[in-house]
Design goal:
Structural class: alpha/beta
Order of helices and strands: EEEHHEHEHHEHEHEHEHHHEHH
Largest sheet: 8 strands, parallel
Strand content: 5-15%
Number of domains: 1
CATH class: Alpha Beta
Distance between the termini: 33 Å
Low-confidence stretches: none
Bound molecules: NADP nicotinamide-adenine-dinucleotide phosphate
Length: about 325
């Protein structure tokens, strides 16, 4: 496993991290299977785990807590997220900062996460959604300083809403942001335009999330794909998006070198960019951990393939299904 610096935190995190949304909130999750996958990750050198209180209202955090307990002698890095007080996603410029992230709410959710994880201090806390109209409001900046001064968190960041990669640039420019989490994959290349250069300038760590576009870039979707009632993916992969996603995945498969799978090409595309610190596929199964660790060990893609994949950029606008 290779390790990369997570911006100004100074932590060397595994370039493959472990995403933990699915095991908290998606249908078909089995805690024992998820724990096995988490253990396999640690055995194979993964040291970065991404969770959030909202992933099953603490379910995902508690799974991570039990992993941390089992490996208390190993330095594992964790990121968790504070939900907006309104639980509305995504954030909008007309929302008020004080309705979404008042300082007492930040403290309350840091305490909840500490308790779920069995920790006294959180490595990294991200706001689970953001609008940059709030960047210059000193109340969040003061709240972050307080959380750090009290020793409750070590680093602070923003998880940027889907398909709005530039909607945290002003916050980064305040100097209060240590890390951002953003969607970046073969389709969603837009963070390269403005976000990554700013992150570089301010030495902000980059977590590339949703490396498989929620499943499209694993190549497993078909026009008949559907999930049990209540699974978020039914909304995301509505008929229109499913049709387009399957079509685009098929086009990509034509570009795959003979000895490479689509998930491997997807992960290696992301990690070919040195602006990325880590990428965090959702992994609920040991076989996916094994496959993804093996894939990233093959390193950067060839330049010619990266240039070819540039043509598969897919710029999308947030919509009611993209949440
Ligand atoms: N707003 C936010 O902050 C936010 C939003 C979304 C995601 N995230 C974070 O980013 C992480 C990653 O995103 P995601 O989980 O939504 O989507 P994703 O990583 O793009 O895709 C996850 C899907 O890929 C499958 N998969 C993983 N490795 C595979 C492989 N080698 N072969 C075939 N299938 C494979 C998973 O299988 P299984 O179903 O079997 O696990 C799962 O269905 C999340 O888990 C979460 O930690 C954050």
């Amino acid at each position: 496993m290779n390790y990369r610096m997570l911006g100004k935190t100074g932590w060397k995190v595994s370039e493959l991290g472990h995403g933990m949304w699915g095991m908290g909130s998606w249908t078909g999750s089995d805690d024992k299977e998820s724990l096995n996958a988490l253990h396999r990750s640690v055995e194979l050198g993964v040291n970065f785990f991404d969770t959030a209180w909202v992933y099953g209202n603490g379910r995902s955090e508690k799974l991570l807590g039990s992993l941390l307990k089992a490996y208390h002698n190993k330095r594992l890095y964790i990121a968790t997220k504070i939900p907006p007080k309104s639980f509305r996603y995504p954030m909008k410029p007309e929302y008020k900062l004080n309705d979404e992230y008042p300082s007492d709410h930040l403290v309350e959710y840091v305490q909840r996460s500490l308790s779920n994880l069995g920790l006294e201090k959180l490595d990294l806390v991200l706001l689970h959604g953001w609008d940059d109209v709030w960047a210059d409001d000193e109340s969040w900046q003061k709240a972050v300083m307080d959380l750090k001064r009290k020793g409750l968190i070590q680093a602070f960041g923003i998880s940027i809403d889907r398909w709005e990669p530039e909607n945290a640039i002003k916050a980064i420019q305040t100097g209060f942001i240590d890390v951002v989490e953003v969607i970046y994959n073969i389709f969603d290349q837009a963070p390269e335009d403005k976000l990554f250069p700013i992150c570089k300038e301010f030495n902000v760590g980059v977590i590339a999330r949703v490396p498989f576009d929620e499943g499209t870039l694993t190549g497993s979707l078909t026009l008949n794909s559907h999930w049990p009632v209540g699974d978020w993916r039914n909304k995301y992969f509505n008929p229109e998006n499913l049709l387009e996603s399957v079509k685009r995945a098929k086009e990509l498969e034509k570009k795959m070198p003979p000895d490479m799978s689509l998930p491997e090409m997807a992960l290696r595309f992301i990690l070919s960019n040195t602006d990325v610190s880590t990428t965090i596929p959702g992994m609920r199964k040991v076989k996916n951990v094994d496959g993804n660790v093996k894939a990233v060990k093959n390193g950067s893609l060839k330049k010619e393939l990266i240039s070819e994949l540039r043509n598969h950029r897919w710029d999308r606008k947030p919509n009611p299904s993209s949440g």
